[in-house]
Amino acid sequence: MSNQGFSELALQPLAPSDYSMVMAKSRENRLTFATWLMFFRDHGRFPRGPSDLESLDIAALARQIEVTGPADGGLLLAERTAKRLRTEIRVRYGFREATVADADSLTEWLRDHAAAEAGGEIAAMVERLETRCRELAIEPPSVERVERIARAALRAHEERFHADIYGRLSPAIRERLDELLGSAEGENATGSAPATLLTLCGNPGRPSLASMQEELAKLELIRGIDLPADLFNHALPRDLERCRRRVAVEAPHELRRHPDAARITWLAAFVYLRARSLTDDLVDLLIEMTEMQAADRGLRELMLSEAYGRDRVAQMRDLMKPLMERLVERAVAEGGARDDLRAGDIPVLLKMIMSTVEFTRPVSPQAWRRYVTILLDGLCRRRERPTQLTEPELSDDDLHTAMHQLPPDSCVLKPPGTSAARRPEVPAEA
């Protein structure tokens, strides 16, 4: 018979002491007792149904203890006999049944040590509870009771998290967060403006001056709420994401029905994460604009020179300048960008990127993405880890080819015998 599908522990024969216990039973009870004994040895609990026994080679076990395996695979016992055999097995491994006090202490332990990492997943909580029971030599309760304990622990963890965040926010900040939901009266009024929250949830759309203005306006709105900078310093990402999802999936009128602590905490976490994603959206918009210029040489030359459409280009730059100033100031104020970054650096950095596009285009049209990523990482004050580079470095042959395809007037160092063009001297006034 093949051993495929059985665990290594399940294939181990009974230990001599266990074998003696099994053989002391009547032939009618022997196989059931041996099966329960081996399952309890491996899992710290009794099987709850036929599916639990699929990892055991019951036929091989029956041969070892010299009995015939059941034709239908069933292992049925009288209730009194089953209760007595379970008691013997618990005593054999030093376990005991769970009590009401155990359920309370397990709930507290799950709340403090497992709920945050489980991310709201009941299955993960149940697994941690059963592991904890094995550590304490306690037989886990029934499936229904285990799930109730897990849900109670998750609820207790969330309530404690909500109470902590709510207590650290001033009444004024709570009021500003609630204002994101709009008024209940205005929501039912015909032609009323949508809740501010719905505006914050919107996506930036195609890269344009208008989309950048809209995203920066959202950042200014979030900045006006004035969340404490250290509000979520010790919060786990799973907790923050759970709160964000609640705000994202529920309509404003549904959110108003929740208790104050839960509702305000969800909104605060949403605003906190939205500020970070808005900054990422703006960076993405800048990258998309770079892509457009990289793919369109005419647009690139128009943006980086004043030879054509001088008035229109100057007008666009005048509109972009305050947006760039606000973006950079916001990034520096939030600690995302280095302290000495200024808005005036952005045009120079864009020029550097466009020069990289021109340099690498003949050998690797997408290589500029590698250097933009390195540049953006260098502008950040801190990162958990460097951003993954999606493009490989240029090979020596690529560098050689790119160097020899540069336009003559792009060389910084002129060949011997030539000199850079000089600006005409202005004659001195008579």
Question: Can you walk through the features of this model?
Answer:
- The chain is mostly helical.
- It folds into four domains: 79 residues, no CATH class; 68 residues, no CATH class; 96 residues, no CATH class; 110 residues, no CATH class.
- Helices cover 61% and strands 1% of the residues.
- The chain contains 20 helices and two strands.
- A two-stranded parallel sheet has the order 1-2.
- Helix 1 runs antiparallel to helix 2 and helix 12 packs parallel to helix 17.
- The N and C termini lie far apart (113 Å).
- The N terminus is likely disordered.
How many DSSP H or I helices?
20
- The parts where pLDDT drops under 50 for at least 5 residues are 1-11, 189-193, 411-416, 420-424
Q: What helical percentage do the residues reach? A: 55-70%
- Shape summary: elongated
